Amino acid sequence: MPSEGIGDLINLRDIHFGRGEYMPANIGRLTSLQTLGFFNVGTRKGLKIEELGSLSRLKGSLNIRHLECVKDKLEAKLAKLHEKAVDELELWWELDRSKSELEGNHDEEVLEGLRPHPNLQRLKILTYGGKNLPSWMLSNELFLPNNFNLVELEIKWWGKLNSIPVINGLSSLKQLTIWDCKELTSIADRAFEKMPLEKVSIASCPKLESLGATCLPLGLKELKIGYFSEEVEESLDFSFIHHIHTSLEKLSLVKWEKLTQLPHHIQHLIALRELEIWGFSKLDALPEWLGNLSSLESLLIEGCMNLRCLPSAEAIRHLTKLKKLEIRYCPVLEESCARETGAEWPKISHIPNVNYSPRLSLPLGIGPMGKSHSQIPTTILHELLILFSSLIIS
Fold this sequence. Notes:
- It is a single chain.
- The protein contains eight helices and 19 strands.
- By secondary structure, the chain is of the alpha/beta class.
- The radius of gyration is 23 Å and the shape is elongated.
């Protein structure tokens, strides 16, 4: 589509692009537009964020990328996001900015000017380089005040955020993701207890020293947790699991490098259908009590380099609902569980779906702030991160 002709399509209501970098100029002239999947902010006239300002009829989802091209709060406010009743808003900054670019960024100002509509249902803020939350996210001890519709909040790859306060006021929130925030050191006690959360993912925050996990809400169905500081690994009491033992259906434990055995509290999760164990480098055997998980249907074991053996055959036979076993990047265990030839194979031969094949993944803890991504083109890196997230967050 020629960029010089896009502004003449004044009756156009829906427009869809691929996930590449191309964005026609002068989209702001399309005042009848209702669907715009994403908008790549540019610095040239016709590509700036102000183009969104006149699109007052937008609905559905909106993904805004390259927010590093926005200079300040005043320019960000020209998008008039607070007037757009979109259901889902996703905000992206550049993935592979240099250290100097991160240090001198205006991300806090820009995010301050991107206050969304109060009827927003899903908010995702990715690769944000600010240290503080904007005032519209935290006001009078309320998180996203006056929003009674938000069901999903996702914070990923924030390079400077160091604390998350008590989150009150989100009476509809069902899903919370806090992922790969390298400088995050604390999450307030009792941070989540007043929300009707069903799915929580808090992982890949290696400096996290305190975690308000003891007050996870009743009714929680999915929990992904791990890759924290040594302080959290050594001090976290998994007894908090007890008060969600009748509701939790999926548990993912990510990169607990100090633990030599699985937390025994897990055996009391009577509703657990899926268990994922990632990156337990000192774990050498799975416990016998694993057989107590009578509802277990799927078990994933990945990146446990020293894991040698499964529970006894008797314990595994008690897992009568187990239909899927995946063993990935566990060289010792994979050898002992090799189909037909491994010493452990007779224990699992009755399971309908046993899978050892590798899948596309990025190493745990590698995020867009890291140097490892510096040689990857931005567009390709963006696609890899989207795919990676769909594999391990969903």
